[in-house]
Amino acid sequence: MLEKGQEILVLRDVLLPGGRVADITISNGQVMHAGAAGKGDLEISCRGKFVLPAGTDLHVHMRDGPQKAKETWESGTKSAIAGGVTVVVDQPNTIPPLTTSDLIRDRVMLAESQAYTRFAINGGVTSDADLIGMWRAGIFAFGETFAGPSSYGEAVSSSVLRYTMEQVAGWDGLMTIHAEQVTEGPDRTLADHDHLRSVSGEVRAIQDVLTMNAHGCNLHFCHLSSADAIRAIPGGGASREVTPHHLFLSYELFDPEDAQGKVNPPLRSEKVRRELFSCWDQIDIIGSDHAPHTRAEKGKEFEHAPSGIPGVETMIPLLMGRVLEKKVSIADVIAKTSFRPSEILGITKAGFSPGDRADFAIYPDTLTRISADNLHSAAGWSPYEGMTAVFPEKTILGGTVVFDSGEFFKPDLSEDYSGIRLWIQGRGYSL
Questions:
Q1: What angle do CA 275, 279, 282 make, to 5 degrees?
Q2: What pLDDT does 407 receive?
Q3: Per the residue annotation, which of 289, 365, 373, 412 is the catalytic one?
Q4: Residue 415 has pLDDT above 50, yes or no
Q5: In sequence order, which residues have a C-beta less than 8 Å from that of residue 65 and are 6 or more positions away?
Q6: Which of 57, 77, 299, 375 would bridge 116 by S-S if both were Cys, CB 3.0 to 4.6 A apart?
Q7: Mean pLDDT in residue range 196-206
Q8: pLDDT at 347
Q9: Rounded distance between C-alpha atoms, residue 306 and residue 262, angstroms
């Protein structure tokens, strides 16, 4: 890795998405040149490798605090960079939920003390949330806003939704929406869970939110789980996020009462999963919805087990596996995990052109099988156990190697570093 005083990193023989091979010259946290390069202070050969702009994951739950047994900022962001992700956006359904400016500031301080990635923080939407205080404290977005209950959040009322959308629209802010409708009934199996949180209910919740949005608030729909949900959102009406677990997993892959497959929205049938993948071109971003729980919690009787699965480390590796199988293009993976999420977040994209953010992940051209023993989340398990993927050998943040063949290096935040602060402040920041 680059030490203090070393200024130039050169990635040699990078195969660019258009097919051209070039050297990438990096300095001060950004790409300086793509083409033939002179000597660098550190040079990395990329011949025969895939070099991708690192991922930006708009949907993670880093837990910590009273939930640190599930995940900490250190373990969660190490898991992220081991999966080729260098930017994460943390959701506000923490304990306690992030609904005030003071809680936002505390969350930022906690993250800054541990994080191995850049990060942004979202603010919670409740009837008593301090919306303007959180906006000025630097949140990225409001939500995920629960239009259906989840393990750590109850659905907000229509009046709260309308009021919040009106306020946020006035600030030209963003609301992220968890769209579900939940019916009463026994919740004892994965098929039950799918039935109670149905595709039709997901569609109705989306339609209700769109109808309420009279003031034109910017909306982002989280973890859409079906083709019907994708199609319910008109082009340009909001951004659409889909998770790897809804793309790669169906409830038929698990034993009926196995809570490791319990998540909100639910895993769907294999038929619905395939239909969702057929909407690949209409998906704006892939977000992990990394929501870790311990093995013990997921081992409870199904109806008492929490919903959520770890996934930030396996998100891009699963997609890269499909690249090697020629089922998706590498250009699409870059667009949906890096370019478009960075655009929504409002930061300079990671990429290969001069001025781009120098965040990269370098992948081999070989498949491996996912094993929880090799992953870094504190959760200690994975629903993708045994599935094929391609994990990065190296991850680069701001021109500095922060992950190399299983070894982690904490970003240097001294004055000699590239000048990049890990916390990404929202546009409303005024403190």
A1: 160
A2: 97
A3: 289
A4: no
A5: 94, 95, 110
A6: 77
A7: 96
A8: 95
A9: 7
